[in-house]
Predict the 3D structure of the following.
Amino acid sequence: MMIEPHAKTPRRQEPGEEDDRLAALVVDACVKIHQQLGPGLLESVYERVLAHELETRGCAVSRQAAIPITYEGMAFEEGFRIDLLVNRQLIVELKSIEVVHPVHKKQLLTYLRLSGLKLGLLVNFGEALMKTGIHRIINNRVERI
């Protein structure tokens, strides 16, 4: 799957109730998975298991969706791949690392800008507690859940 690039002049978008509901559903699924599997597995394992969990909850999930880079009117798929795209409206970027660094948040911000989507979650399954491993990213705001 490839996400269509947004218009050249993006406007600031705030997530709506449906975005917030979907984000809460993803957070709940992440907590469940983290409780059952614990930290320290490969990111690809969490990606597959989370995709399955969200699909069982009725979500449409695309794994490794391409976000093209547009240059001089041409779109190149070699740009970026997001870990999970949920219901074509929420980006979920997964990590399984000791510490989330600012570059990881910037990566998700870039995905949001390029896709034109409103909301993303950066989820680090490497944390001892899942609640400290989830970061909500809206346009240029980063919030810890």
